[in-house]
Amino acid sequence: MTAPGLVAALATGCSAALLVPVAPRFGSPAQPLATPASSDWLRRWRPLWVLLAGVAAAVFVGGGAGLAAAPAAAGATWWVIERAEPVQVRRDREQARRDLPHVVGLLADALRSGRPPDAALAVVADALPGSAAARLAPLVPRLRLGLDREQVWADLSADPALGPLGRALGRAHRTGAPVVPAVERLADELASSARAEVEDRARAVGVKAAVPLGLCLLPSFVLVGIVPVVAGLLSSLGL
């Protein structure tokens, strides 16, 4: 294979690597639960993908250059798979993000009743089991042990799903502002955002449904409405 072809192949591989979603990096207290390798098909069959990539590079490049390119392609494939975010982790993060408005609303109610933040978080984690609760549960013992709350809220802020809650609590802690109004404002903002997102999705459904409906109805309209008229005109003209 020529040098430009090899460069093109490498560029294609790099572009594919950049398209793979990367697992987010954040603090360990807010890190989601580990995902077993058996639940991720990409990692479960990683030796097969690595072998196929090496064989494909050897066949595609050919000759001695192919033998040299095969280990590089296999290593690049291993790195890309390692770099990819597991599907279950991404679903866990999306589920926690969807649960965030409910979590913040319940937390505001718990704080309004006079509970301290650690007890309020414990109530929320018990009342709303799921991805968000699994991320909040490790914070409760840290708060009860008297660790620095600013650091705890900073770790929560680094969470890609519950970051808004951590930033609101951390801002209230730094400024000395009451926690309840800050959480209530965040609950209102998240509720408004959730409603707007649902409305946008509903409008998108109508737009996406117009194309298949048009493809289904247009041929029927042509056959039922236009073809008989054209056939009648042609017959009346004696054609």
The domain count comes to 2
Q: Kindly identify the CATH topology of the largest domain.
A: Receptor-associated Protein
SS field, number of helical segments: 11
Average pLDDT: 75
C-alpha Rg (nearest Å)? 28 Å
Total beta strand runs:
0
Based on CA inertia axes, which overall geometry fits?
Answer: flat
Main beta sheet = none
**Which second-level CATH architecture of the largest domain applies?**
Up-down Bundle
Topology as a string of helices (H) and strands (E):
HHHHHHHHHHH
Instruction: Report the β-strand fraction as a percent range.
Output: under 5%
Q: Could you estimate the helical fraction of the residues in percent?
A: over 70%
Give the tags.
mainly alpha, Receptor-associated Protein, disordered N terminus, 0% strand
3D structure, described in words:
With 239 residues, the protein is mainly alpha-helical. It folds into two domains: 3-30 and 36-85; 91-193, Up-down Bundle (Receptor-associated Protein). 78% of the residues lie in helices and 0% in strands. The chain has helices spanning 3-19, 41-44, 46-61, 63-83, 87-112, 117-127, 131-136, 139-144, 149-157, 163-175, 179-236. α5 packs across α6 (117-127). It is flat and about 95 Å long.
